[in-house]
Amino acid sequence: MEKAKDLTAVQARVVREIMALVRRENRVAGDAMPEVSLAQAIGTSRSPVQVALRHLATLGVVRQDSNRRFVLARDAKDLDDVAGTLLAEPDDPLYHQIAQARQSGGLPDEVNEAQLMRMFGVARSTLRKVLSRIAKEGWAEQRVGSGWEFLPMIDSPQAYEESYLFRQSIEPAALMSPWFSADRSQLAALRREQQLIVDGGYQSMTAIELFEANCRFHETLAQWSGNRFALQTVQRLNQLRRLVEYRQAALRPARQTQAREHLGILGAIEKQDLIEAAGLMRKHLEDARRAKVYGQNVFAAGASAS
Q1: CA atoms of 209 and 228, how far apart (whole Å)
Q2: Where are the alpha helices (DSSP H) in the chain?
Q3: How far apart are CA 217 and CA 120, in angstroms?
Q4: Torsions phi, psi of 80, nearest 5?
Q5: DSSP states of 142-163 as a string?
Q6: What are phi and psi of 64, to 5 degrees?
Q7: d(CA 194, CA 24)
Q8: Cα–Cα distance measured from residue 202 to residue 289, given in angstroms and rounded to the nearest whole number
Q9: How far apart are CA 184 and CA 194, in angstroms?
Q10: Taking Cα atoms as reference points, which of 124, 159, 158 lies closest to residue 139?
Q11: Tens of each residue's pLDDT in the chain, 306 residues
Q12: Could you give the CA distance from residue 259 to residue 254 in angstroms, rounded to a whole number?
């Protein structure tokens, strides 16, 4: 059996993805955990899934039945303890450390790899993988040689507010797109997940689980718009929001309110009343803007983070 420290980065990610999937779908003990369907759902090959399932077996999350097939050993609602360990930290701690240092003013606009290696105590190969991800997300770019320049990101109350005002011009309009078409199976899955949050998930789910559920909701609706630029924009903003939204973990009652609002938007879409859905989305984003920008200052020193 693989120990956590022996897992590769990919295998560790798949462990977290399987756990998140089980929790998101509120699966129950005895549910089959077939490798092929898990690999398809996560978007990986069977090999890391096999390793991940063996690791989850050591944690008591899954077990093998009489036919040596993996099944869920406990109900998803009873996995808070394991989820709190596996899903409490971002998928890449170094990525999160760099983001926090940048947001807190601990990193200048320009820096070289040698400086970053000393600051975070990592090898160049490890650092470059994270910097490559950061570059793809658009908040840093490589300069000549080994230098890097950090670009504007959501690192202040004003930038946070700008992002919400921009979203108010994009997301309601996406719901009114002439190509808008909701997928019924996806809509049902979103409804289940948001209802789960309302019914108590806002208290038991980790900050990362709550944020990922939020992203799935907004990105799926943007996808239904049929406008590739709307989807790309929402995805890009979510990447930048991720860096600050984890700090909102303490505001759990707000997550329940947001999930209720999400359900209202889905209800309007289900009725094919896209005008109502767009209006609810605009109000939802405006309420969130006021609560998050003018509520707890997540950029202040000592602000809660998770």
Answers
A1: 26
A2: 9-24, 35-42, 46-58, 80-86, 93-103, 113-120, 124-137, 157-175, 184-196, 202-204, 207-224, 228-245, 252-270, 274-293
A3: 34
A4: -60, -35
A5: E-STTEEEEPP-S-SHHHHHHH
A6: -100, 135
A7: 9
A8: 19
A9: 15
A10: 159
A11: 444 557 887 888 899 889 989 988 889 999 999 999 999 988 899 999 999 999 999 999 999 998 899 999 999 989 988 887 887 666 677 888 888 888 778 889 899 999 999 999 999 998 998 898 888 777 889 987 779 998 877 777 888 899 999 999 999 999 999 999 999 999 999 999 999 999 988 888 887 788 889 999 999 999 999 999 999 999 988 888 877 776 555 567 788 999 999 999 999 999 999 999 999 999 999 998 988 777 665 555 444 333
A12: 9
What radius of gyration, in Å, describes the C-alpha atoms of the chain? 20
Residues with Cβ < 8 Å from 235, sequence gap 6 or more? 219, 222
Within 8 A by CB and 6+ apart from 5, the residues are none
What is the pTM (predicted TM-score) of this model?
0.76
Name which of 62, 70, 61, 51 is nearest 4 in CA terms: 51
Phi, then psi, of 304 in degrees rounded to 5: -65, 140
Residue type, 148: W
Tokens read off for 225:
């718009």
Provide the residue type at 175 as one letter.
L
Query: Is residue 49 within 8 Å of 38, Cβ to Cβ?
Result: yes
Dihedral over Cα of 295, 296, 299, 305: its sign: negative
Joined together, the tokens standing for residue 249 give 């973990």
- CA dihedral in degrees (194, 175, 231, 159; nearest 10)? -80
Q: Which of 126, 159, 131 is nearest to 147 (CA)?
A: 131
Show the CA angle centred on residue 211, arms to residues 291 and 111, nearest 5°: 95
Residue 145 CB: number of other CB atoms within 10 A?
Answer: 8
In contact, 264 and 279? CB cutoff 8 Å: no
Residue pointed to by tokens 């999937």: 21
